[in-house]
Structure formats: C-alpha cells, structure tokens
C-alpha cells in the first residue's frame, strides 16, 4: 500500500529517474518543442484481464498492465512528455488531461484535436505543467466504455511528501480507491495530510471524514482562499472533479467515499466508522472572497446553456434525448469566442437529471446558483455538478485558443449527445 502515499521519492518520474526518449523527432510534435522534457513516460494501453486487490480479476483496459495507470507526478513548470502506445485496443484510444489547461493540440479528444491512436500506433503528448493541483487523465475515445473499464490515471502537479492521493473509480459496480476494493489503509507522516480525492466515476460522490474535523483545501486544482474547519458535513466531488482535503492524522481517520465498503483509513489503529452526514459543505459560501483577476461585469460574450430533453431520434434510435438550447446532437450550437473575451454563461438544467458539466481547456468561476450569489472563496471549477432545476451563472476569460469540448461527464450522457464545443474564431 505504500504506493498510496506519494512523495517525490516513489513516483518513478521526475528529473532524476525520468525515462527521457532520445531520438524523438520534435518536428512531429504539436506541444512545446524548445526543450527536452523534464518528465517523460511511456504508457502502453492494452485490453486485458487485471487484478482488483481485495476483489479479484476484471476484464478491462490497462496502461502498463495496471488500472489506474501509472501516476504522473511532476513539479510546477516541468515539461511533461507522455508517449501513448496502443497495443491492442481495437476502437483506438487517446489521453485527455482532465482539468489541465493544456494547449489545444494536446487535449486528446479523438475527432476534435487528433485522431484516435489505432492498435500498433503511438502518439506523443507534450505540455508544461503550469498550475499546481490535482488532475487526472483518461481516454477520450469511446470514453463511456474505456474510462469505466480502466483507461485512466492520476496526474498531480507539485504535491508534497505527506500527500495522500485517492482516485475513486467504479468498475462494474465495484467501487475502488486507487484500483483497490474494501477498507484500504495508508500512512502519512506529520500531523495533517493533504488528501487529493479524484472522482473518476459518472455520478457525484459525497466524501467526509469520520471522527475528525477537516478543511477543503482545493477544488478542481485551485486552492480555496482561507478555508475554515468543517465538522459533521460531507463535501460533494463532482463526476470528473477533484477535492483536496486537509485532515488531522495524529490519530487514525477514515475518509468516507460515498458509502459502501470501500473507504480510506489514514494512520494505524482503529478509525471510527460513521455514516454519510446529511449536511453538505456549500462551495458557494465556503472560504473567503478574493479578487478574481478579471471583471465578470465587463462580459464581452454572454451565452445560455439550457440542458433539456425531448423526443427524437439519435443514431436512428427513438427516445428522450438530451438537448442543448433546444437542439439535439449533432445539431447543437457551438459557443464562439475570441481570445481575450470575458465570457458569461448561464447553465440551466430542466432535463430531469443531474449533469456534471465539464469544459475543456479552461477553468470557470461560479458567480451564482439559482440566483444566490457566491459569497465565499472564488469557486473555480472545471467540472460542475448541475442538478435538475438548477441554474448556475459562471464566468471565465477566453485565454486558450482552440476547439474545446464542453460536455456532460456522466460519460454515457455524453455518448447520448450531451456535448457541444467552445470555439475560438
Ligand atoms: Cu474528463 Cu471531455 O473529459
Ligand atoms: Cu449528464
């Protein structure tokens, strides 16, 4: 289990131990080519049977024979190079760096920023890890199937040695943490630990700490300003989203992961086992305000993003299908911006179900929910849980040119057409 406590020492990457490919033809690369990578990794994707510790064998997909794939842990400012090789995944694969605002060509969306990587082919991703935080990567080809069956991994920029990384993933109804089932135990040095929780599933997950107060340190890779102590409440991790908690580790503590047998215990000895608290931390009012760095009142583009449902045909099949502003995929409008625009968007969900909305290449700040204005720390997000009958006002600066997917991260919903794009002119 030592692999669950991650310091620089055991991640197998970084300048000292990086496996740098000499002889990579930089003229073939789309990412930064002006220097050699600080961290380089080879990931080989396979369709195969692998083991879920605590549970047993599973048929799915692996990267370097494991699911989740190798953890990629880097320092801020490092140039990351990942060579993806597809050994035998017939549908083809890609890697998308969820939450990392990479240059568009590195975004890994099959059919948008690249072609899927076919069996026998390789593809090289290169990007600079500009912002510290908790991220993950996953295939973006037939992703509702490939991600669920294992083609994903963790990416953390600038962790400290006492951090605990916990990627929660459900394989065929088997919930795991870091690919393992049941009560998992990890040690962390020091008196507090930063627990980096990653929800790689299709639905939201409540997390909480049994028997101890905690703080929410970060949301989707952005630190919360002046977080306060939380007791007896859970915090929701949006599908695709990440939440970093600070937990005391002077005695053993248990992190509840949405109920069920899989939990994470930090420390030795007994950890109390509670039930999911009914109260939730509301990120709209959590922490302390601070300047956003731009003025949402000076919006140069204003969009609405109405999520609904209507009867129609999709892929020739009749049914109730998702709509965006009344249109059904692929006949959905794109959001067109220019570089430098201050963009405001109202996301309104009347579809009857919750949708975790994920915008690639950008982080957005939440201004209000159901007309109630944000009063806490700026709530920067890339994966926003929009419940049925909820309306969110968000804003962001269009500062990353390209074509960016903006879709529901309940991946079967995306496959059913809850997808549009943000496009720069
Ligand atoms: Cu995490 Cu478009 O995906
Ligand atoms: Cu959805």
Written description of the protein model:
The chain has 425 residues and is mainly β. The chain has three domains: 2-157, Sandwich (Immunoglobulin-like); 164-266, Cupredoxins -  blue copper proteins (Immunoglobulin-like); 296-424, Cupredoxins -  blue copper proteins (Immunoglobulin-like), CATH 2.60.40.420. The chain contains three helices and 31 strands. It has helices spanning 14-17, 143-146, 411-415; strands at 39-52, 56-63, 72-74, 79-86, 96-98, 122-128, 133-138, 152-157, 164-171, 174-177, 183-186, 192-199, 205-210, 215-219, 222-223, 235-237, 242-248, 253-257, 263-266, 301-314, 317-324, 335-337, 342-349, 355-359, 364-369, 372-373, 380-381, 383-386, 391-397, 403-408, 419-424. Strands 20, 21, 23, 25, 26, 27 and 29 form a seven-stranded mixed beta sheet that branches. The protein starts with 13 loop residues before the first helix and ends with a strand. 47% of the residues are buried. Mean pLDDT is 92; it is low at 1-23.
Provide a quick synopsis of the model:
Keywords: Metal-binding, Oxidoreductase. By secondary structure, this protein is mostly beta strands.
End-to-end separation in angstroms reads: 49 Å
* CATH fold naming of the largest domain: Immunoglobulin-like
Strand content: 35-45%
What is the architecture of the largest domain at the second tier of CATH? Sandwich
CATH class of the largest domain equals Mainly Beta
Low-confidence sequence ranges: 1-23
| General form | globular
Secondary structure: helix percent: under 10%
- How many runs of DSSP E, i.e. beta strands? 31
